[in-house]
């Protein structure tokens, strides 16, 4: 039977595996007179589990002696194999010395050393709450708010006709009931899960790798532009990231301790919550099954987790918990054409060869990179993919942590890319939760580099963080197209009782409702197409929010406004051609305000005898 001994000095422990048939004469000959027993010396991250006794020498001398002995044994006898333990990776010196010194200083801080993750979460919170209210509510956010206003039964019905499941909207409804619907409050509900996701990423990395890798992953996740962006929207994407990472954590715990079914119980609940949050949770199922498939060949027959009844039962339970919503999903699939008609799906451009690198640029820089210098456009994304692939390929650890993280990032990305050749769904926000695997994988790759490559690792880390900072700058930059509230507030200030307000687009309508402070019935302009086909929304997608009141909301022509109408506000795009063209000849424009890519115009209707015409006609 193999015997294993661990020893440590201030550089951390070294694991020494001794073959049972190999005599360790070189070690005993040089140090046998002084070495009485060797077990484990604690490090700052390792509890006391043994005692080292050395005649006439201090513990630090023993550490040096044992390391030299181990090295001598490898060189001269070949009978001792030295391999790094996780704790040694935590404490080794020379690889990022500044990080090592900071780690050592923090480890000496007593009970505070257990709170090393707090500064990282503080950074994540600061980045996510900075500029939280700078940009105006946009159409998708407006739809979340409208859905959350319904009573519970109605919310279930309308979410069934929307493109997303109901859990987030129920939670948003409760949140607004507690904290109000101010923009800080409603976006804060996404920022908080965004910070939690960073914490879960740190936890997952620490479970899979070393303390230093967890620190690096935490910093990279805290600054990750795509995660920051979707932690600042009134949508479900940061919440989805929480379910994904938490479920993956539960799976890893179960893989390490399969006899503990409580991990699978937690996994079932987290996966079910994810499915009630977003349909792309199905990709997580594929990732986890693929991961267990990756472990299959390295596990002994009878111990293969992929074939365990407990695993299959857990997946069946997830389906059972999802059964109440399943009929709604089936109905939605049967009405895909209605969703396409309303522009809820199918609006994305078809994918091309450049779509994958462009998506990675979006994750990192919040820019598709289309106008970049061609070698730069291709080299950085391909470098990241190569780092992920090589790190996973070289992974020889028992539970294949790098393999799991590579699957977490690459499998959803490539699957959605492939599906998008049939139905375009290759959209950043749908993949942002899975993109969290990239910074974790980068941290793991840097942490595993040997000392001789530490300079390259440091350079790569600086490059990655530099691109992240540029992405954060891009995300924090608010321009005119982010200020849709400006024209709405202009209308609020100049509105008079009896005015009509007509909007040319559903997305304008959804945003306008949040900022509107008038008593007017907002109307949606729905002129028929040249062939006579109606452009009115249907009962699916965004249309479910207005279709039941369509008789009051839809306006097919400006000429059918009531005869007593005297003033009309038209809200349209600033782009040409004019959404409302042609404007009736007896309408006269009085006021105009642009903002957020929209234009608000006030017209007076100069009808009838001149004395009876409203002010502004004469």
From TrEMBL:
<dbReference type="GO" id="GO:0008610">
    <property type="term" value="P:lipid biosynthetic process"/>
</dbReference>
<protein>
    <recommendedName>
        <fullName>Glycosyltransferase RgtA/B/C/D-like domain-containing protein</fullName>
    </recommendedName>
</protein>
<feature type="transmembrane region" description="Helical">
    <location>
        <begin position="429"/>
        <end position="446"/>
    </location>
</feature>
<keyword id="KW-1003">Cell membrane</keyword>
<feature type="transmembrane region" description="Helical">
    <location>
        <begin position="182"/>
        <end position="204"/>
    </location>
</feature>
<feature type="region of interest" description="Disordered">
    <location>
        <begin position="1"/>
        <end position="25"/>
    </location>
</feature>
<dbReference type="Pfam" id="PF13231">
    <property type="entry name" value="PMT_2"/>
</dbReference>
<dbReference type="GO" id="GO:0016763">
    <property type="term" value="F:pentosyltransferase activity"/>
</dbReference>
<keyword id="KW-0328">Glycosyltransferase</keyword>
<keyword id="KW-0808">Transferase</keyword>
<keyword id="KW-0472">Membrane</keyword>
<dbReference type="InterPro" id="IPR038731">
    <property type="entry name" value="RgtA/B/C-like"/>
</dbReference>
<feature type="transmembrane region" description="Helical">
    <location>
        <begin position="404"/>
        <end position="423"/>
    </location>
</feature>
<dbReference type="GO" id="GO:0010041">
    <property type="term" value="P:response to iron(III) ion"/>
</dbReference>
<dbReference type="GO" id="GO:0005886">
    <property type="term" value="C:plasma membrane"/>
</dbReference>
<feature type="transmembrane region" description="Helical">
    <location>
        <begin position="236"/>
        <end position="255"/>
    </location>
</feature>
<keyword id="KW-1133">Transmembrane helix</keyword>
<feature type="domain" description="Glycosyltransferase RgtA/B/C/D-like">
    <location>
        <begin position="164"/>
        <end position="326"/>
    </location>
</feature>
<feature type="transmembrane region" description="Helical">
    <location>
        <begin position="370"/>
        <end position="392"/>
    </location>
</feature>
<feature type="compositionally biased region" description="Basic and acidic residues">
    <location>
        <begin position="7"/>
        <end position="23"/>
    </location>
</feature>
<dbReference type="InterPro" id="IPR050297">
    <property type="entry name" value="LipidA_mod_glycosyltrf_83"/>
</dbReference>
<keyword id="KW-0812">Transmembrane</keyword>
<feature type="transmembrane region" description="Helical">
    <location>
        <begin position="453"/>
        <end position="472"/>
    </location>
</feature>
<feature type="transmembrane region" description="Helical">
    <location>
        <begin position="267"/>
        <end position="289"/>
    </location>
</feature>
<feature type="transmembrane region" description="Helical">
    <location>
        <begin position="309"/>
        <end position="326"/>
    </location>
</feature>
<feature type="transmembrane region" description="Helical">
    <location>
        <begin position="115"/>
        <end position="138"/>
    </location>
</feature>
């Amino acid at each position: 039977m193999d015997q294993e001994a661990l020893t440590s000095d201030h550089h951390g422990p070294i694991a020494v595996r001794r073959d049972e048939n190999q005599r360790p004469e070189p070690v005993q000959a040089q140090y046998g007179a002084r070495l009485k027993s060797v077990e484990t010396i604690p490090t700052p991250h390792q509890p006391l589990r043994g005692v080292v006794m050395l005649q006439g020498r201090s513990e630090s001398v023993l550490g040096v002696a044992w390391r030299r002995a181990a090295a001598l044994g490898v060189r001269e006898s070949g009978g001792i194999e030295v391999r790094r333990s996780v704790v040694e990776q935590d404490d080794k010196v020379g690889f990022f010395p500044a990080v090592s010194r900071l780690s050592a200083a923090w480890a000496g801080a007593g009970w505070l050393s257990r709170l090393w993750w707090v500064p990282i979460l503080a950074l994540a919170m600061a980045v996510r709450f900075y500029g939280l209210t700078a940009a105006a509510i946009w159409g998708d956010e407006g739809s979340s708010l409208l859905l959350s206003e319904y009573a519970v039964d109605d919310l279930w019905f309308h979410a069934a006709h929307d493109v997303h499941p109901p859990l987030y909207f129920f939670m948003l409804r409760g949140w607004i009931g507690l904290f109000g619907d101010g923009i800080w409050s409603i976006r804060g509900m996404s920022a908080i899960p965004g910070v939690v996701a960073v914490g879960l990423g740190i936890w997952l990395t620490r479970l899979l790798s070393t303390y230093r890798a967890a620190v690096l992953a935490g910093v990279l996740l805290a600054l990750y532009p795509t995660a920051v962006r979707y932690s600042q929207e009134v949508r479900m994407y940061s919440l989805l990231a929480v379910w994904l990472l938490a479920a993956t954590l539960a799976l890893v715990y179960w893989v390490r301790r399969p006899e503990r079914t409580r991990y699978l119980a937690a996994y079932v609940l987290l996966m079910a919550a994810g499915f009630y949050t977003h349909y792309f949770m199905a990709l997580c199922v594929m990732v986890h099954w693929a991961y267990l498939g990756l472990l299959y060949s390295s596990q002994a027959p009878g111990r293969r987790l992929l074939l365990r009844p407990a695993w299959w039962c857990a997946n069946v339970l997830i389906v059972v918990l999802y059964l109440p919503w399943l009929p709604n999903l089936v109905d939605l699939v049967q009405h895909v054409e209605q969703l396409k008609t309303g522009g809820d799906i199918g609006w994305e451009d078809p994918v091309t060869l450049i779509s994958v690198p462009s998506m990675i640029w979006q994750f990192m820089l919040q820019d598709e990179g289309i106008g970049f210098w061609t070698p730069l456009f291709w080299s950085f994304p391909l470098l990241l993919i190569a780092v992920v692939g090589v790190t996973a390929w070289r992974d020889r650890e028992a539970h294949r942590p790098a393999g799991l993280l590579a699957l977490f990032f690459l499998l959803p990305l490539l699957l959605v890319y492939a599906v998008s050749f049939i139905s375009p769904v290759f959209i950043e926000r749908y993949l942002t939760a899975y993109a969290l695997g990239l910074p974790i994988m980068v941290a793991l790759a840097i942490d595993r580099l040997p000392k001789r490559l530490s300079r390259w690792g440091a350079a790569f880390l600086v490059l990655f963080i530099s691109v992240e900072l540029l992405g954060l700058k891009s995300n924090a930059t608010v321009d005119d197209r982010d200020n849709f509230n400006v024209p709405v507030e202009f209308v609020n200030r100049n509105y008079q009782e009896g005015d009509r307000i007509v909007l040319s687009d559903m997305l304008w309508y959804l945003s306008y409702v949040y900022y509107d402070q008038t008593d007017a019935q907002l109307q949606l302009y729905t002129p028929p197409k040249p062939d006579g086909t109606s452009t009115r929304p249907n009962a699916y997608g965004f249309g479910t929010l207005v279709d039941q009141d369509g008789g009051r909301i839809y306006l097919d022509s400006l000429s059918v406004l009531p005869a007593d109408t005297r003033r009309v506000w038209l809200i349209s795009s600033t782009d040409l051609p004019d959404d409302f063209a042609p404007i009736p000849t007896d309408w006269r424009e009085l006021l105009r305000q642009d903002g957020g890519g929209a234009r608000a115009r006030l017209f007076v209707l100069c009808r009838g005898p001149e004395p009876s015409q409203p002010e502004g006609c004469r």
